[in-house]
Amino acid sequence: MDIWDLTIIGAGASGLACAIAAGQQTPRAKILVLEKLDRVGKKLLATGNGRCNLSNTAIGPQAYHSQAPELLKPALECMPTGLVTGFFENLGLLCRTQADGLIYPYCNQASVVLDCLRAELESLSIPVECSCAIQEIRPSRGIFSLTAADGRRFLTKAVVLAAGGMASPKLGSAGEGLSLAKQLGHSATALSPALLPLPCPGLPGGLKGIRALGEARLYRDSQLLRCERGELQFADGALSGIPIFQLTTEMGHPSRKGVYTVSLDLLPQLSREELEAILSQRARSGHYLCAQTLLRGMLSNRLGYAVMKSCGISPLSLPVAALSAAQIRALASTLKNWRLKVSPPAAWDAAQVTLGGIPLEQVELPSFASRIRRGVYLTGEVLDVTGDCGGYNLHWAFSSGILAGRHAAAAVSRQK
Ligand SMILES: Cc1cc2nc3c(=O)[nH]c(=O)nc-3n(C[C@H](O)[C@H](O)[C@H](O)COP(=O)(O)OP(=O)(O)OC[C@H]3O[C@@H](n4cnc5c(N)ncnc54)[C@H](O)[C@@H]3O)c2cc1C
Q1: Are residues 289 and 239 in the same domain?
Q2: Which residues, 6 or more positions from 193, have their beta carbon under 8 angstroms from its beta carbon?
């Protein structure tokens, strides 16, 4: 049976970048990629709504979450934005940086990113075995034996676990990478889904599909955890949109138990006082006859009605002239601080990333070599590093893959 120099488990963002970096570093090395699904890079195709937000100009600890925050800075210092953009430019992919720092392929197509990766794998003659879910990994005298669900067996001198986390299992990983790491003696932190809609049982019905520019603040008990501005989206019993996704990175860990509420500011450009003055002036003007019309042009009608009802203004046919100063003040306050109870999200299917994973303390930097088992490397989402929305997760996956690939290949060539 062949003994491979380096085998990469998982052909997602991280595993593909790793295999290419290893192949470029040591062309003579015998490298193999194993992928559970019937094709490589399935999740990559879904990223950025099919546009693939692959990195960001503001890479730094402020955009990441880990239970070892003190290790984030040194880890991220090894992986500047240019590591990823340079890698892709070398593969022939032109990247474009938006004014907000988000980096996309120039053509805005995730499929082209995957095409570039596949073409380079082919030109480096690195074989990929698809439909090959590795279930068991056994080290013995410097060689690892990998066994797939269908009984196939592979022998390798070094192995990279790039099998992802638990998020969006239909696109690949359902936690197998973490079980393989545990077979090798690693442990994992508690895991929870992140970057997904936030269940909000008390959200009034009938708001599905509404979008509003606003600010969302997340509180645990009375402590403010995070505040985000942008396009809020309303769904059935859930809040969504990028600002809400970002809030979910602050929830979920068992150490963070408590009562969570979100406060929505639906008119962040106005102060509460300015808003109250505008509403009072509208109420006096005689142009707005019933309560239903008072917020015209400020919010979508359905959202406006829901806010009014939630602060007790009902029926909406109530003449505006009948609204008291206290009711106007309450309405202004609710528009600026609409408090809604939310629960930590639990739906892995809807999650973009996994919060938690193999502790960063268990790998060496910048090689991403295991500190527990020689010859093993861990990269991407399998590690306890979660980025915000904005290209930070793919940046982490690609750059940890590139660094591990280069170091693993250098180690292989030293052994040859
Ligand atoms: C819908 C969606 C949109 C996203 N958009 C963005 C975005 O625009 N920008 C951004 O930065 N991040 C985005 N993300 C997050 C980003 O895609 C992930 O963080 C990143 O893909 C993680 O890369 P990875 O290689 O570590 O894991 P994955 O991409 O999950 O790849 C792991 C691979 O390993 C394979 N595998 C698992 N177990 C085994 C096994 N036992 N044997 C063999 N193979 C195995 C899986 O099938 C999979 O192909 C998005 C995520 C989702 C779900």
Answers
A1: yes
A2: 166, 167, 248, 252, 345, 346, 347, 348, 350, 351, 353, 354, 355
Domain that holds residue 106: 3-192+349-415
Asked if 309 and 361 sit in the same domain, the reply is: no
Q: Give the domain-ending residue among 299, 330, 346.
A: 346
Ligand 1, pocket-test mutation among 32, 40, 47, most atoms within 8 A of CB: 47
**164 and 271 co-located in one domain:** no
Do 202 and 327 lie in a common domain? yes
Q: What is the pLDDT of residue 314?
A: 84
- Tell how far the Cα of 138 is from the centroid of ligand 1, in angstroms: 24
Domain of residue 122, CATH code? 3.50.50.60
Of 353, 367, 411, 358, which is closest to residue 63 (Cα–Cα)? 353
Classify 358 in phi/psi space as left (phi over 0), alpha (psi -120 to 50) or beta: beta
Q: For 225-267, how does the pLDDT look when each residue is reduced to its tens digit (9 = 90+)?
A: 999 999 999 999 999 999 999 999 999 766 678 899 999 999 9
Please provide the average confidence, as pLDDT, over all residues in the chain. 95
Distance CA 387, CA 381 (A): 10
Ligand 1 atom, smallest distance to 387 CA: 11
The pLDDT score that the predictor gives to residue 340 is 97
Contact 15, 162 (CB under 8 A): yes
Ligand 1: which of 18, 39, 43 to mutate, judged by most atoms within 8 Å of the beta carbon?
Answer: 43
Model confidence band, residue 318 (pLDDT cutoffs 50, 70, 90): confident
Residue nearest ligand 1's atom 19 by CA: 393
Whether residues 173 and 278 fall in one domain: no
**Mean predicted confidence (pLDDT) in 31-41:** 98
**Total-model pTM:** 0.96
Task: Please give the share of the chain, as a percent, with pLDDT higher than 90.
Answer: 88
